[in-house]
Amino acid sequence: MIGIADTRVISGNENISGRKISVYEHDGHSFFLMTSGLRSVRDKAVAYFEEMLEEEERTMDRFFKVVNSFAAQIRRVAAEDRQALEEGGLRFNIFCIMGGKMANDSEHRLYLLYPEANWVEIGPGTPYHIIGSGGYGKPVLDRTLKFDDSMQFALKVGCLAFDSTRISAADVDFPIDVVLLFADGRLAQHRFEKEDLIEISEGWHERLRNSVANLPAAWLNRFFDEIEAPRHPEALTSERVGR
Questions:
Q1: Closest listed residue to residue 110, CA positions, set 3, 193, 226
Q2: What CATH number should be reported for the domain holding residue 85?
Q3: Number of domains into which the chain is organized
Q4: Of 170, 157, 169, nearest to 197 (Cα)?
């Protein structure tokens, strides 16, 4: 599994940087948690969740139990803060993607949680899922990514999808945090700055332009030829007579 999260946080009229992905490793299992939405809701839910983990982690032998525990913290924060947020003109908003594997799971699991704290499992039929600003990078993923692609290919596609989003969305920007979760339970994470990915960003931009220029254009040429062709003199005479 691969998790990619940007770090831009909109706070009033300010743009600040904040980590949106949390990683947990303990006794041979590991998982990650990514969020979008109101930062205050996210921070409070994660704080409650991490306190709960210290007390109950040993009993969580299946990953869906971990997801249920975080969902319970979202409901807790909603009970405490939803009314005040809505009275202040803010919608209670948090989406979450959680991926990992616990001791009694046969394989890694991936879940999407909604603001209402209900969840769905993301399976092989959906090789990716986006929360937050999803529309700009989605075409890149839809056209290229398959479930059985290598992690190297998937990470490259994911970074291109992020770059497409960054260019078009004001609330997405570098640096980005990347988490790799391997089948054997190993977990790796890294932060990429803009200069780290400038080569792939500029290369993708140039290749897109060249690809458009090299697309078949017979249909287009016929259309423009019809528009630009000189009109027949008789047609012009008829128009003058008609006027």
A1: 3
A2: 3.60.20.10
A3: 1
A4: 157
Instruction: Kindly state whether residue 208 falls inside one of the protein's structural domains.
Output: no
Q: What is the pLDDT of residues 69-107, one digit of tens each?
A: 999 999 999 999 999 999 999 999 999 999 999 989 999
**Two tokens, residue 136:** 């700009």
Is 77 inside any structural domain? yes
Measured from the Cβ of residue 21, the count of other Cβ atoms closer than 10 Å reads 19
pLDDT of residue 144: 96
C-alpha distances out from residue 44 to 3, 78, 94, Å: 22, 10, 11
Place of tokens 């209670």: 92
pLDDT in the model for residue 76: 98
Residue 228's pLDDT band (boundaries 50, 70, 90)?
Answer: confident
Asked if the structure places residue 154 within a domain, the reply is no
Q: What is the pLDDT of residue 230?
A: 66
Q: How far is CA 49 from the centre of its chain?
A: 22
pTM: 0.87
Q: Would you say residue 145 lies in a domain?
A: no
Closest C-alpha to 4, from 133, 185, 108, 186? 133
Residue 85 pLDDT: 97
| Cα end-to-end distance, the chain, whole Å | 71
Domain that holds residue 23: 2-133+171-193
